[in-house]
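Appendix B, example 12.
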Amino acid sequence: MSSLATAPTIGTTLMRRSLEIPCRVAAISGGLLIAALAIITVISIVGRWVASAPVLSDMAMLAWVSPITGDYELVEMGTAIAVFLFLPYCHLRGGHVTVDLLVMHAPAMVQRLLAVVAETLFLVVAGLITWRLYHGLLDKHRYMETSMLLDIPLWWGYVGGLVGFALLTLVCLYRTCDAFTYDPQQPDSKQNSPTQSSSAQVQESSTQGDL
């Protein structure tokens, strides 16, 4: 885990618990959506292959087999929504990749300052994107723009993105508050590992045997 990752404290435990279930539901929904899109893609590829095969395409019993109309539109919109739904749970668990080879050896005060700055910037960016997604949803709904083949209203995709980024903004707010009480573990503070404990017990047993 990143050295800048925050951990729940007494003051933010309730806030984290209230975000845990919505973030899990959003991530599971995104996973189910990706699974459905994968099935649609496979069916469409098989249908396109059967419809273009020299022998199979001439069989009357397979005349109904064809690629799914608008599969590209479904995959395009569904994938975007799924990515938005994955983000809150990923950030809640500190799953974003960071490069902190130098930061992890910095003093605790520097690590805390960088954690506050990073989480605050993420909060500002998430809030800004949420705001723009909301206005984009209003524009798409006002002009009723639709997709080319399936006539799917484009504002439907904005709803999924808005839900995901609104939840991400709340997660960023929680992590920003938690970053002010962030207490990094220094690499010098080591606890006795099970291997060391076992070695101590073996040495103690051998000493007692000699006596």
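Residues 13-52 form the longest helix (40 residues). DSSP finds five helices and no strands in the chain.
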